Automatic annotation (TrEMBL):
This is Proline reductase for pyrrolysine biosynthesis. InterPro entries: NAD(P)-bd_dom_sf, PylD_N, Pyrrolys_PylD. Gene3D superfamilies: 3.40.50.12150, NAD(P)-binding Rossmann-like Domain (3.40.50.720). It comes from Methanosarcina horonobensis HB-1 = JCM 15518. It comes from the Archaea. Residues 9-118 form the Pyrrolysine biosynthesis protein PylD N-terminal domain.
Length: 263
């Protein structure tokens, strides 16, 4: 499991603003608007308690502070507890938190204590990046290439299928690819296959922990690449060469998706 680093989270407000402007350009709505529309929820006055967690690899510098900035950006009233772990959870509830946000090395959750709803960051992230890409106003077809079909990628690919897109999928793990092809009915994409390599996509969804995972040959002019994957799936040079609209941000879009899903 790849862990976020303080470097990933540098200038989180600026990263969110830039992502919001790309989302608006691609879909006509901002991130908030998409979350509202997709989940059918609107925040009213829910207080969010952010609890640092020391287990495993421990506290990530600026993780909690970034969540504080992100929740504020989306209009939630939030606070970070002074204490971590169980003591922090107790502190959050005692101080009126209705939604708890906390993460260890494997799971990042949002739990609404009032209505019992709970969300996991990985599916929420996959689904919202897929939802954003599916709203690409200038897409030339309902074909999508999904690269990386793990804990974030699988729910994203499933979301495209659910919305009626024709999904071509690729994962470096052949067994996982086969399993996903049979469970979701997607079309296996093989970057080493000559004819697959001549197919071009105006929507590409990527969720891997690797760089340069998207072959140049599949990128069409002005395509949208919606990618929660860290590091970035495509080089700056290729982005520029093909006028790619990139939707990529390390924490905020997925967190917004989690929060709206538990309202
Ligand atoms: P995962 O390990 O469950 O899945 C990653 C998948 O990518 C695996 O199935 C792996 O086989 C595949 N893969 C690796 N290299 C590949 C390549 N070159 N080509 C094709 N497939 C390849 O991980 P995950 O939890 O799904 O996370 C995926 C990425 O998303 C990670 O970088 C993670 O840090 C990031 N992430 C970002 C956010 C966000 O808000 N931006 C949120 C959650 C996760
Ligand atoms: O970065 C992570 C994991 N990859 C799960 C997130 C899924 N995108 N966890 C963050 C750990 C935070 C740490 N325990 C803290 O500072 O509280």
């Amino acid at each position: 499991m790849a862990l976020l680093t303080p470097e990933d989270l540098e200038n989180i407000n600026k990263q969110l603003q830039e992502a919001d402007s790309s989302v608006r350009k691609v879909t006509g709505l901002d991130i908030k608007g998409i979350c509202k529309d997709f989940y059918g929820t609107t925040p009213c006055c829910e207080k969010v308690g952010i609890v640092p967690v020391t287990s495993g690899n421990g506290i990530i510098g600026s993780f909690s502070a970034s969540l504080h900035a992100i929740t504020g950006y989306f209009g939630f009233d939030s606070f970070v507890t002074d204490m971590p772990d169980v003591s922090g959870y107790y502190e959050a509830v005692r101080n009126g938190a209705q939604i708890i946000l906390m993460a260890d090395d494997n799971t990042f959750l949002a739990h609404n204590l009032k209505n019992g709803k709970i969300a996991n960051n990985q599916p929420c992230t996959g689904i919202i990046y897929a939802e954003i890409a599916s709203r690409h106003l200038k897409a030339d077809s309902k074909d999508v290439l999904a690269v990386g079909l793990g804990k974030v990628g699988f729910p994203g690919a499933a979301h495209f299928v659910h919305k009626g897109f024709r999904v071509y999928g690729y994962d470096a793990d052949k067994a996982l690819l086969e399993k996903t092809v049979s469970s979701l009915g997607i079309i296996p994409f093989d970057p080493d296959n000559h004819s697959d390599n001549f197919r071009k996509f105006s929507i590409i969804f990527e969720a891997t922990p690797c760089a340069n995972t998207i072959p140049e040959s599949v990128i069409s002019e002005n395509c949208v690449i919606s990618t929660p994957g860290i590091p970035c799936a495509i080089s700056k040079e290729l982005q520029k060469k093909y006028g790619v609209e990139l939707i990529m941000e390390p924490l905020g879009i997925g967190t917004a998706s989690m929060l709206y899903s538990v309202l």
